[in-house]
Amino acid sequence: MENQVAEAALAMVRPTTDSSTRSAASSFLEQWTRTSDAWPVYVKWLQSFHIDACNSSNDANPERLGMQLLCLTLLLAKIRREVPRNAEKNSDMTTAIQNELWSFLQSTQAPELFSPLCSCLTALVVRNNQIDDLLVKICPSQESLSKPFTEVTSLRILASLPPELESCGDLTIPQVTSVLFPYVEIVLDTIRKALVKSSSASSALECLKAWIQTCHITLSQLNSTTCGGTDKLLPVLIQILSQSSECGEGIWISASHALTESILIPADSCTPIRQAAVAEMISAVSSQGFIAGPFQNCVAQDWDDGAHALATLMCTLVSEEVDDLCAEPADAYIGFLLQIQEHPRTQVALTVLDCWLTVQDIPTNSRHEHWREALFERIAEGLVKRVSYTNSFATWEDELDLDEQEFTEYRRMVTDVLINCYFLLRVKFLRQMVNVIFNAAASHDWTLMESALFSLAAIFREVCARLKAKGSLSSLVEDRTETAQEIIRLVEQLCGSDSTMAATAAAQQHVLVLGAACQFMGLYAPAWNLYCSEDAIFRILAYLHAAVQIQSTSKSDLSMVSTAASRAIKSIYISCAKKLLLCNSIFSCMQASMEGALLTEITDAMAAVAEGCTRLTVQMKDSSHIARSFESVLMPLLQRSEVTLNNITNDGLDDQRQLAADTLTKYLHVLHVVIRFCDTQSDDKSPLTSVLTVVWPLLEKSAIQGMAFESILKEVLAVHKQILSNIPKIMASRFSEVVKFVVGAFEKSKHPCTLGYIACAVESFSPMNSNDEKSFQELLAHVTKVTTTYLTTEKRPDMCPDLIQAFFEMNQRYIIFCPVALLGCTEFSNIVSLAIECLTECKGERESTRATLNFLGQLFGWRSLRLSDTISHALQNNASIVDEQIAKYGKTLTNTCINGLAGGPQMLWPAISDCVIAIISNFVVANATGPVVSNNTIAHEWIYSSLCCCNTSTGSPLPTETCQHIMNILFTLVQKGSKSKPKAKMLLTDYAKICKGEMAKDALLSYSLDANDVQH
To answer: In this predicted structure, what is the pLDDT of residue 930?
Structure first.
């Protein structure tokens, strides 16, 4: 056996071993190490390793070293797995192994082995309850006594004790802390003595961190004497973190992490010893360069990890002691905090942001002058510089100095700080930002100009709320007036005397400046409505019109600016509607907006302007004005659409026709937006009535092209759906024409959007008369025939999940809005049959399977749906048709659902649960003739047999008594009605987790049901 184990171990570590041999060796070793025969082999292994180490014959042998590491890894796992704490089992063998580990650790010189050896040794020590004996040997009370290990090795053993005690598993974290607490003082004393020696400082700090994390060693304990002496540990840490060059980055990181952990422990909060420790650290920042000195060194050496650790320590100290620190002068270290904010690496600069937010939680009158307005003015000034781009920035693809993800993250995180600055400074903050913009414009510093505009954008909600405030207090009125003056002063400066030239000048500085200016103008639209004249608003719009059409060599820059300007136009049209509607020039302005947006051919830009124009138009009172406004908006769109249509129909290259089709798709999307935001009245006075007359020819021509281009078809039907949703009565006269096109398109393309339109029509025309029901019944029959033929002759259901999803979502609308047409359809049985087949064929594809399950759940569980009286009555009259399908497919569906819970995607569990509950509720409700419901229905048989036949992750079904118990609970919950449905779904979810091995069967005990309700 020993030879086999040795050969397997060598096969594992040899680099030349092939994968199959290595896999076989791994399996053999895994099985062997779980046997009791492995213990004596480990003893012999360790003995041979110790002998080799004494002879210094193997330290340079990679294979031998690899075998030793493998042995220690397997041994550690075996100890943790098989040796319980305070157990006598295997005591002789584990003692022998412990002795060999002790000897091996004393003799080896291989640094790679120290960590696993220490872990194995401490794993046995804590399980044999020998911590006292260990500490007596490695931490003797008298310096003159000999030590079995070097100081570094002893510290590594001490560092391994807390995690190994936690790994035992039989103790909670507080219990682990309680076990180790008696040894804290002697360990801290040992660490303090080791820290004064450079050779052992790193190991001592790692040991300190481990004990602080597990034993929750507080600042007070670090600042107390140990073992009856006069020395403390905290001054030593302060000294280490005050040396600007003697220590390396690793020492500073370890010391910072350890001290940060201790600061975060609140057990000694507000105690005199902790307050003294904090005062000592704060004083050392200025007197000894505590934290600040090493931080400067890390910045000079580009040691970002060290800078981050030191910054985290300083900011944690301030945040945790903010109540006391904010009441005292802080000129000694506020400059250092601001320096952290300016650090070029985002991970370092982010640390101080939480610090500023914590300070703002302290009432202003409770803060020292150093923590008030002057500080936050400096913070705001620094943040504007910190969030700015580099002067050479062009595009992210070409940028070398900034990381896009970090830059974006920092801007996102800094928003809360900027808002807090504004809340404290109010108009002073605005004046500060406006002055930055003016000065940057004068000095042609586009980066500061853009970042100041970004800062104003970050606080727009708060500023606009201030401008809208209705209070009459003199201080509020004064601040509100001055706020308005600063905002107006800035927008006047941006627009200048000639808005077009001003936009061009901004773009010449940098397109990002123009984009930021456009965003600012859009976000502050409520302010323009309150404080700007009509002429001033039109100047802003002129600036934005020029920005939309600005030219740039970069397509991404062009898209960004055009989209920002278009969204700003939309915001102004919405927010300033009352003022704009007073001017006759609004019509030409909207036309200019629309024409400019259409020229960009950027979907978001065109849609934003279309939405703004439409929402402004529907607020008009005069019908002639409405018609004129829609003409201003729609004519540019229709004209360009006609030209694009001609480009598609003309003979040309396929690429050119595809490009024209893509452009027409965008225009149709814009038309969709216009119709969506039209007034939704359903009478002849609706603005949409006149719009429909104008756009109908375009829709007819586009529909023809939709047969060749699916993107066009999708948008055409999206427009038709929107029209149908807004004005179904007016559309009734045109519906037959549209539905013929839809059916033809479906027959040819089988595109899901065609079924989506039919579903929308079913909902829009509900409630229906008998003639409409018959028409939709025939429509459903035809669509079903086409679908089933397609799925049996051309493609299988798993090859077209989108079609399956759309088909059954359409049928769901039939259940809810027109059940007579569905149940009376000649293809109804084929629809249900197809649904059952698709559950198997689609193999758990999420969206199509969910749609299918939802359809079946609603069909079979219609009695529990909240429907109108008319729909419920119709379903009741045709209940026998549904019951016939349940009887035919119920068993198959139940089995499919239970298997889906046991092995299907978790995302489908809710839909599967709904379907199972629907089947049960059908029998519970249909057969409920009195207060007692039968416990022996066919549904009981289906559920029970499915549970008993369904294999779990172990490869076998659950025990029959467990299946019986689950079934009884489930039926009891369903019988209690809709209020218990969430608990029933939770039960089925827990069943699925039990099957997957993620939950124990004992979880079923949590369902506290009355004993009389559940029959075991």
So the answer is: 46
Question: Using one digit for the tens of pLDDT, what is the confidence trace for 393-440?
Answer: 988 988 889 999 999 999 999 999 999 999 999 999 999 999 999 999
User: For the packed helices 586-600 and 534-548, what is the interaxial angle rounded to 10 degrees?
Assistant: 20
Secondary structure element (H or E) that encloses residue 789, with its range: helix 770-793
Spatial CA neighbour of 687 closest among 698, 695, 679: 679
Asked if 576 and 524 count as a contact pair (C-beta separation under 8 A), the reply is no
Under a CB-based contact definition with an 8 Å cutoff, are residues 544 and 565 in contact?
A: yes
**Cα–Cα distance measured from residue 470 to residue 485, given in angstroms and rounded to the nearest whole number:** 17
Tell me what pLDDT residue 932 has: 45
* pLDDT tens-digit readout, 185-200: 999 999 999 998 888 8
Classify each residue of 62-89 as buried b or exposed e, where b means 16 or more C-beta atoms within 10 Å of its C-beta: eebbbbbbbbbebbbebbbebbeeeeee
Q: Do residues 335 and 374 touch, judged by C-beta distance below 8 A? A: no
Residues 480, 285: Cα–Cα separation, whole Å: 42
**Crossing angle (nearest 10°) for helices 131-138 and 111-127:** 140
Sort 583 into a burial class: Cβ within 10 Å, 0-12 / 13-18 / 19+: middle
Q: How far is CA 985 from the centre of its chain?
A: 26
End-to-end distance of the chain based on CA atoms, in angstroms?
51
3-state DSSP call for residue 459?
coil
* CB half-sphere exposure, 702, CA atoms < 13 A: 34
For residue 482, the one-letter residue type is: E
Residue 589: CB partners within 8 Å, gap ≥ 6?
Answer: 538, 541, 580
Nearest to 265 by CA among 227, 317, 315, 226: 317
**56 CB burial (10 A radius; 0-12, 13-18, 19+):** exposed
- Report helix, strand or coil for 225: strand
- Looking at residue 32, what DSSP letter applies? H
List the structure tokens of 336: 């250092």
Prior bond to 767 cis, omega within 30?
A: yes
Q: 388: which DSSP letter? A: P
817-820 contact pairs (CB < 8 A, 24+): 817/762, 817/763, 817/766, 817/871, 818/762, 818/766, 818/768, 818/773, 818/776, 819/862, 819/871, 819/874, 819/875, 819/878, 820/773, 820/777, 820/874, 820/878
Number of C-beta neighbours around residue 218 at 10 A: 22
Structure-token match 């920042």, residue found: 285
Single-letter amino acid, residue 994: I
**pLDDT digits over 121-136, tens only?**
999 999 888 898 898 8
pLDDT digits 0-9 by tens, 239-292: 999 976 668 899 999 999 999 999 999 999 999 999 999 999 999 998 999 999
Closest CA to 593 of 547, 625, 627: 547
Question: Which of 725, 629, 616, 627 is closest to 676 using CA atoms?
Answer: 725
Residue carrying structure tokens 């941006």: 494
**Arithmetic mean of pLDDT over the chain:** 90
pLDDT tens track for 710-761: 999 999 999 999 999 888 888 888 899 999 999 999 999 999 999 999 999 9
Cβ proximity of 127 and 86 under 8 Å: yes
pTM: 0.84
Distance CA 199, CA 206 (A): 13
The token pair that represents 637 in the structure block: 């769109």
The runs of H, that is alpha helices, within 794-908 are 801-817, 819-823, 828-841, 846-860, 869-877, 879-903
d(CA 260, CA 238) in angstroms, rounded, equals 12
Q: Count the alpha carbons within 13 Å of 649 in the hemisphere toward its beta carbon.
A: 11
CA distances from 53 to 12, 115, 154, 155, 823 (A): 22, 16, 19, 21, 85
Counting every residue written for the chain, the total comes to: 1016
- Looking at the DSSP bridge assignments, the partners of residue 225 are 232
Query: What residue type is 736 in one-letter code?
Result: S
SS3 232: strand
Alpha-carbon 677 to chain mean position? 31
